[in-house]
């Protein structure tokens, strides 16, 4: 009997430790929506004169006054916009969803990868702001965002960006090959037309009859 009671106690204690130790989702914070909005809408996006998520781009903060904050940044060669959506889980618990879009001039196939990098840095800024700590540029490279859900807007990662670039290069090579084939075909057709022209007849169009002709 004592063994049975002890076993039940151990199981119950183990379950309690499991539930106590289980980490909460990385994108959830023990703050009300109002408090979360207040903190994110007053965040300093350029700490240290340009060490924030947008680097030295000109950054600004706007919001709808309730549950959406938008962090934007722009410069002469790039621009980004990140929407922070605040969803209440309980009276003092909020889930934050981060979605970013934008790009730089000439980024091409790397646009998706660039947006993913910006989102990772923005998530680090969100986490730092809501936890009352300093922004960490090293964690902004993906360590903080690692446990977050993916962006609802799909952005290519490094592998996909490289794949897109390779595909773009292959497509360009195909187009160049097609153009070269067409050029050669035109040259062949032009040469055939030139060689196939009738020779010039030097005989008079209306020959005069000779003396034997009656």
Notes on the structure:
By secondary structure, this protein is an alpha+beta fold. It has a domain at 24-167: TATA-Binding Protein, CATH 3.30.310. Helices cover 41% and strands 19% of the residues. The protein contains four helices and five strands; from the N terminus they run αβαββββαα. The radius of gyration is 35 Å and the shape is elongated. 20% of the residues are buried.
Write a short abstract of this structure.
This protein has 214 residues and is an alpha+beta fold. The protein is built from four helices and five strands.
Number of strands: 5
Treating each run of at least 4 consecutive H or I residues as one helix, how many helices? 4
Report the radius of gyration as a whole number of Å. Answer: 35 Å
Shape: elongated
Query: Under the CATH scheme, which architecture of the domain at 24-167 would be assigned?
Result: 2-Layer Sandwich
Flag low-confidence runs: 3-22, 156-161
What proportion of the residues form beta strands (DSSP E)? 15-25%
